[in-house]
Design goal:
With 213 residues, the chain is mainly alpha-helical. It has one domain. It is 90% helix and 0% strand. It is built from seven helices and no strands. The protein has helices spanning 2-20, 22-44, 48-68, 73-94, 100-126, 128-166, 170-209. Helix 4 packs antiparallel against helix 5 (100-126), helix 4 packs parallel to helix 6 and helix 5 packs antiparallel against helix 6 (128-166).
Length: 213
C-alpha cells in the first residue's frame, strides 16, 4: 500500500508540475518539433556532395561494425556522459542569465535538429526499411529518456528566467536558482540512466540488427 501511495504521489507531482507549466511545455515541445522538421528539410535539401559524404560516413561506420563486431563501451559511456552532462549544465546555466530564454530554445532546437538529421541521414543512406530499423536500434531507447529530460530542464530554466525577470529581489533569485538546481540534479539521474541505456542496450541492439541491414 505504501509503495502504491508513493507511486501515486510521484505521478501527482509530475502531473501538477506539467499543468502548472503547460504554456512553457507547449512552447518547448513546439520548438523541438519544428527543429525536427527543419532537420528533415535540411537533409533533403543537401547537395550531391553532401549526400555522398553522409553516405560514406554511415556506410564506413556500419562496415567497421560488421568487420570488427565490437564497440568500445567504456569510451562510449564516457563520451555519452560527458556530452549529456555538458547539455544539462548549459541548460542550467543559461536559465539564470539575462538572455536565458532564447538560448534555452536554441539548445532545444539544436538537439531536435541533430536527432532528426541523423535519423534522416540513415534512412537516405540505407533506404526506408533498413534505415528505419537501424535508426530505431541506435536512437530509440535512450531518446525515450533524453527527450523528456531535455524538455523538463528547459522548462525549469524558462521558469527560473521568468521568475528572475518578474522579481529581482536577491532572496527570490537565490530561492529560484536553488530550486532549479535541485530539479536539474534530479533530472541528471535520468540522464545518467539514459547514457547507460545508450551504451549497453542500444549498442547491443545495433549489433543484433547488423544482419538485417
Amino acid at each position: 500500500m505504501k509503495k502504491l501511495k508513493k507511486s501515486h504521489n510521484f505521478k501527482s507531482i509530475i502531473y501538477m508540475h506539467v499543468i502548472n507549466n503547460i504554456k512553457e511545455y507547449f512552447s518547448v515541445i513546439l520548438v523541438f518539433l519544428i527543429s525536427i522538421i527543419i532537420g528533415v528539410i535540411a537533409i533533403n535539401s543537401s547537395n550531391e556532395n553532401q549526400v555522398l559524404q553522409i553516405n560514406d560516413y554511415i556506410n564506413n561506420f556500419i562496415n567497421s561494425l560488421k568487420e570488427y563486431g565490437n564497440i568500445n563501451k567504456s569510451s562510449l559511456l564516457i563520451e555519452t556522459l560527458t556530452n549529456n552532462l555538458y547539455l544539462v549544465v548549459a541548460l542550467w546555466f543559461v536559465g539564470s542569465t539575462v538572455i536565458g530564454m532564447p538560448l534555452i530554445y536554441g539548445i532545444v532546437a539544436y538537439k531536435g535538429f541533430c536527432l532528426s538529421y541523423t535519423i534522416s541521414s540513415c534512412i537516405i543512406t540505407l533506404g526506408t526499411y533498413r534505415g528505419t530499423i537501424f535508426s530505431i536500434c541506435a536512437t530509440l531507447l535512450q531518446n525515450i529518456i533524453y527527450i523528456p529530460c531535455l524538455i523538463a530542464i528547459a522548462v525549469s530554466g524558462i521558469k527560473l528566467y521568468k521568475s528572475i525577470v518578474k522579481d529581482r529581489r536577491r532572496e527570490n533569485i537565490k530561492i529560484e536558482i536553488i530550486r532549479h538546481s535541485f530539479f536539474s540534479l534530479f533530472i541528471t539521474i535520468f540522464i545518467i540512466i539514459g547514457s547507460l541505456v545508450e551504451t549497453y542496450l542500444s549498442t547491443n541492439l545495433i549489433m543484433l540488427c547488423m544482419d538485417l541491414i
